[in-house]
């Protein structure tokens, strides 16, 4: 069994493949080709979002790949700016339509605050109650069978704690940025203690780790590329990596991570 066939098990028992294809910033036609190629070459897990603007093309890629729908795991996300129950239901229903599927495997709240406010320091409005309304929409869609699993993205511990007080179903996933040199021990610890799977997007730091001499030393030791080390680094922490590429050779290489980084080297990478 390859890493593409291995799975994590979510709190509700649903299995999710350990490596997914990210499609953030993938132009629609590129997203179509990357999705189709990835599925034809062993991937089963595709991650997209309403605001990426590529769900129609990804849906076509799903169909044209010839892979059975029940073998594929699809993630989408409700826009961070849409903070009401009704808007959230709209995002779910329109995503189903755009993807051309009867159900979505995992739907997330894309961020706890509108993107324009996500990097404000100090943090302004927290939108706790609005997120609870979005969550209620996810719970209802989950219970109606439109969604197989539900979760959040970019949520801090405070956001998660407030939602836990309001939720009748606890989040199964928190998708956050996570890569060598940018880790979040507090969120990871909270999630793993509460049976929330952490997914890591931008595992190669949107390319900024390419050429890093210290990571290259580790890559050379294992006979791997820097992206492969970055992706494996997350897997060693039981984090699900979502490497994004539209290049066929990189899509294949990003899945060749069936190796182990030893504890000493993990500690070194943690220190960077």
TrEMBL record:
Output the superkingdom of the source species: Bacteria
UniProt xrefs under CDD domains: AKR_AKR1-5-like
Could you tell me which residue ranges the NADP-dependent oxidoreductase domain spans? 19-272
The yes or no answer to whether the keyword NADP is present is: yes
Keywords of the record: NADP, Oxidoreductase
Q: Does the keyword Oxidoreductase apply?
A: yes
User: One Pfam family, short name please?
Assistant: Aldo_ket_red
Tell me which InterPro entries the record gives.
AKR, NAD(P)_OxRdtase_dom_sf, NADP_OxRdtase_dom
**Family assignment from sequence similarity:** Belongs to the aldo/keto reductase family.
Query: What's the name of the protein?
Result: Aldo/keto reductase
- Which organism does this sequence originate in? Streptococcus caledonicus
């Amino acid at each position: 069994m390859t890493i593409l066939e291995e799975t994590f098990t979510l709190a509700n028992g649903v299995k999710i493949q350990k490596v997914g294809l990210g499609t953030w910033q993938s132009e629609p036609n590129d997203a179509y080709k990357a999705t189709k190629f990835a599925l034809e070459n062993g991937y089963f897990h595709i991650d997209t979002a309403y605001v990426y603007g590529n769900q129609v093309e990804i849906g076509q890629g799903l169909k044209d790949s010839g892979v059975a729908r029940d073998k594929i795991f699809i993630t989408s996300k409700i826009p961070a700016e849409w903070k009401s129950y009704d808007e959230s239901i709209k995002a779910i229903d329109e995503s189903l339509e755009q993807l051309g599927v009867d159900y979505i495997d995992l739907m997330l709240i894309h961020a706890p605050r509108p993107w324009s406010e996500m990097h404000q320091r100090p943090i302004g409005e927290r939108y706790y109650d609005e997120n609870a309304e979005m969550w209620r929409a996810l719970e209802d869609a989950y219970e109606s069978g439109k969604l197989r699993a539900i979760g959040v993205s970019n949520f801090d511990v405070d956001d998660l704690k407030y939602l836990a007080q309001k939720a009748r179903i606890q989040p199964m996933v928190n998708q956050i940025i996570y890569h060598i040199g940018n880790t979040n021990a507090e969120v990871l610890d909270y999630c793993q203690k509460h049976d929330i799977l952490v997914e890591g997007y931008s595992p190669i730091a949107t390319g900024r780790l390419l050429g890093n001499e210290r990571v290259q030393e580790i890559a050379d030791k294992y006979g791997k590329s820097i992206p492969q080390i970055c992706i494996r680094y997350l897997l060693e922490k039981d984090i699900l990596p979502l490497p994004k590429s539209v290049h066929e050779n990189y899509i294949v290489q990003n899945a060749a991570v069936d190796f182990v980084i030893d504890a000493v080297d993990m500690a070194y990478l943690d220190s960077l």
